[in-house]
Amino acid sequence: MTRIVAGTAGGRRLKVPPKGTRPTSERVREALFSSLEAMMDLEGAKVLDLYAGSGALGFEALSRGAGHATFVESDKRAAEVLKGNARELGFGNTTIANRTAEVFVTGEGDKFDVVFADPPYAVSDDELAKVLNGLVPRLAGDAVLIVERASRSGEPAWPDEVEPLRAKRYGDTAVYWAQVRTDG
């Protein structure tokens, strides 16, 4: 069972797509958001949840005060679950894009303050690097990027425009942090 950890929807359950997704554990989300909130104020932030699955990361951000979340999910069934979760939680400040992350990052639109990327473990390092590079024009001036991967995958190849900050392992999961460079 997947629940929102804290905030206005704290304790509420999320439906999870029947197969093909791997929701971020409560333990990892709790640690991730504790670090994120120590780093920045989520109030009003524009959040991008790539490879969204159930939307646990984006909905957690909304519950904690983010102003809008865009969820990108290629699987049609998972996108329908996302829509249902948004409705159930009462979050109207969402956009759900039923397309691949690779296609989404080639488009134009909002700039994001926080980006979560939790690709399936089968997504190659090269594919992920292409998505991260494609995101650069969509990043706000001090945007934070958080990538979740299998511990064995190693750190993502970050675009030159972002600076790696830290990595933390949680069993088989590793979370990598980066932020847009402010040194120009």
Explain what this protein looks like in three dimensions.
This protein is an alpha/beta fold. The protein has a single domain, classed as Rossmann fold (3-Layer(aba) Sandwich), CATH 3.40.50. The protein is built from 5 helices and 9 strands; from the N terminus they run ββαβαβαβαβαβββ. The protein has a 7-stranded mixed β-sheet, with helices on one face. Strand 8 and strand 9 form a beta hairpin. The relative contact order is 0.16. GO terms for molecular function: 16S rRNA (guanine(966)-N(2))-methyltransferase activity. Its EC number is 2.1.1.171. This is 16S rRNA (Guanine(966)-N(2))-methyltransferase RsmD.
Q: State the distance separating the first and last CA atoms.
A: 43 Å
Overall SS class = alpha/beta
Q: Tell me the overall shape.
A: globular
Largest sheet: 7 strands, mixed
Which strand order does the major sheet show?
5-4-3-6-7-9-8
Main CATH class: Alpha Beta
Cα radius of gyration in angstroms: 15 Å
How many helices does DSSP assign? 5
Strand proportion, as a percent range, falls in: 25-35%
Q: Give the total of beta strands.
A: 9
Q: What order do the helices and strands follow?
A: EEHEHEHEHEHEEE
Mean pLDDT: 91
CATH architecture: 3-Layer(aba) Sandwich
Indicate the low-confidence ranges by residue numbers. Answer: none
CATH superfamily assignment? Vaccinia Virus protein VP39
